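Lab notes, practical 5.
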Amino acid sequence: MARSRRLSAILALDVVGYSTLLQNDAPGVLSALNAIYRSIVVPTVRSTEGRVVKLLGDGALIEFPSAGAALECAVSIQRELRRPDAPYQFSERIQLRAGLHAGDIISEDGDIFGEGVAVASRLQSAAQPGGVLASRSFCDLAGSNVGIRLKREGLHTFKGLARPIEVLAVDFSDPEAEARRKALAYAQKTRFCSSKDGIRLAWTVNGQGPTVVKAPNWIGHLELDWRSPGMAAIITTVAEEWRLVRFDQRGNGLSDWDVGEISFDRFVDDLESVFDVAAVERAPVIAISQGCAIAAAFAARRPERVSAIVMIGGFPQGRDMRRSQRELDNAMALRAMMAAGWDDPYPSLRDLMANIIIPAASEEERRQYAEDMRQIISPENVARIRHAVDAIDITHLLHDVTAPCLVLHCRGDRMQPVEQGRAFAAGLPNARLIVYDSASHVPTENDPVWPLIKREIQEFLTAYAR
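Output from the prediction step:
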């Protein structure tokens, strides 16, 4: 047996949730995987001068003569699979994880072993679905002239490796969209109106064309939302094609913080006040999280004013109303933690919230969002709003919502479980439910399901924003 040692760049690929996919539809997944490897992976590897060492049932091990070529290959494969119209799929959308490292390998009879392979495999297992995770040493070898944006993910400790490894993730967001977003944010002018009970609400308009109104979600800030990884993608998508009216809910953002009443009924009243001040007679509403219940309640109250609703990560019942002791215990614990630790300069609680809401964002994006939360709302008000949100129950109103509703929910959402999205769709008389394979509560541009969600939002609003 001939053995040799050399320095190589290694790409490890793995199918996300392979065992579950097989259980659901083994013939379908095997056929789709064969097509993906035959039509995407193998040709892309060849075009970047790589070598497929071996194809496994749930992945592949690939060797390259240079780090730059390996990075280009990994990104090309993932971009192809992220396309909303990507072929070679079946009843479940297939996602890959990718890990990249450059190091010593041992070659024997066409197979490879060693440190380079081990580290690439560990990085692959830690990558986000649809993502690419690379070691810092690999990225240094790849250089800065590859034209691929990377974001820091900090130090990671892996089983079987003696030392932590600094890792970076590929940033799949569109630089041109980022530039357009900055232009929209720069042109924004904040206005103020009064609610029915005299609270000052901050509102604004972005974009031109038929109007779409955004219902307020849990917490927000008209200026900081432009750099919120989840919110920025959604509001940019809408504002680039329509006149987007949005506002900060009472008790947070640029609206009044010192308010006498924070309740679900007041949230609905505030949405109506913004419809009035923005001179919106009838329009679709785009809603996220608690905003879905607010939009639905307003549509039941004023059906002539709401032409359609996009619901992302919504729930018709708050945690206190779900008749589950576990949900009730979680709600009480979360409210207590918010009241006690929201303003902590070491943002462990806010970091936790960021990890739950936008898990597909990079570490630095999640950290920035966690820091921004301190500017968005006070510890007292976040507990008050959380209490009002947990007490939501609009199940008795759903049959009165006649507007068409597009209900979008991620299967792994840890903030609001997918069962709540299904309950929404089941109770609404004119709803379509789409469930995505993601852990996000609010999907970011780096989430591989975002192109699919973006397409659905655009097609739905095109039909109803007139």
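Observations recorded by the TA: The chain has a mean pLDDT of 91. The CA atoms of residues 135 and 167 lie 4 Å apart.
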